[in-house]
Amino acid sequence: MGNSSWPLIPREHYLEKIRASRDSPFIKVITGIRRCGKSTLIELFRQELVASGVGEDRILYLNFELFDPDIPTNADALNEYVTSKVPMGSGTYLLFDEIQDIEGWEGPVRSFYDKGYDIYITGSNSNMLSSELSTKLSGRSIEITVSPLVFSEYLLFRKDSGLDAQGLFQDYIMDGGLPAVALSEDSSSAKLIPEIIEGVYSTVFLKDVVQRHGIRNPVSLENLMRFVMRNIGDRTSARKAANYITSAGTKTSHVTVDEYLDYLDEAYLALRARRIDSKTSEYLVTSDKFYAQDLGIRNHVAPYRQDDIDGILENIVFNELRYRYPEVCICSVDGLEVDFLADPKGSPCYFQVCDSIKDPATLEREVRPFRELDDNYPKTIITYNRYLFDNVDGIRVVSIIDWLLEEAD
Fold it and tell me: Which pTM was predicted?
């Protein structure tokens, strides 16, 4: 499972969720972009099963990305393979890695579920649960979404680097949080980081977008990905994006762009952030924003420029909020906008993100949408550098590194 020389570093945030789901009457669906660490989580869980007394003969792990002639390549072969390898029913664990590469995989998985197996499947597409598995087993599957490393995890992966948090944050901004990248930073493999990122991006783009959806003109899709990555944190109109792609030499329509944006979101390349109205609590049918799942991939597609910093900071906060909360969106307030509203259906909290608020005009711009809100939920301004005060008119002010590390304290 990956490079055997790399340590298997536990990511407790996700392992706790997997442990809690053990032996529950659900199929556990673990989704996330390729190479974000799903296989490592499955291997660590397998080791925990063995340590808890489960015999190795009652655990079957299959990685469908491996070029192994013994691994089944279709639904019928999968059914025969499983029944020949492990005892049927309760007390037997099936761990299927990147199962979406098997056509018709839903049928055998449904059959295994009916026979009482405890099933864990991973996949690199967020649309897996809207497949036949969901329609035929409504209410019998749960999803655990895994992301690349958030900053507190990134520090754990690089604890022997000798760099302080500020130095590591610069690496994080440039190279992102794919586990293989973080583990390569302080090793002889560091020079290979651009190739690692390019390899992951190419695999996801080709297998999870182009091939999965049968796209005949990938040039338009590549141009759209470049447009979105260059404009992270900006409202993305399908018409505007279509005009950009057409101007780049490949004519396309806003309808096609809308479909392509969904495909990029499903493959965890460009994450959609929807807008919600602060008064009605309803989502608005207007231009959404998009953020990169991983900044290393973002910078590969749209090389970093100094004036990108505001969008980059927003991107990091958006990914962190998705890690901490069940739902994150943009909040529209009487024509103004709050960058993020987290957990709108639970315990809401609001966030503004900017490089600096030392300029009075910038401070006023960030505070004004908060003043228009008619509730008392927590409000926070996150800045790149520490501000002189930690509070402005009852609104918390915190530097991004301090905020990112609060969860780790």
Answer: 0.95
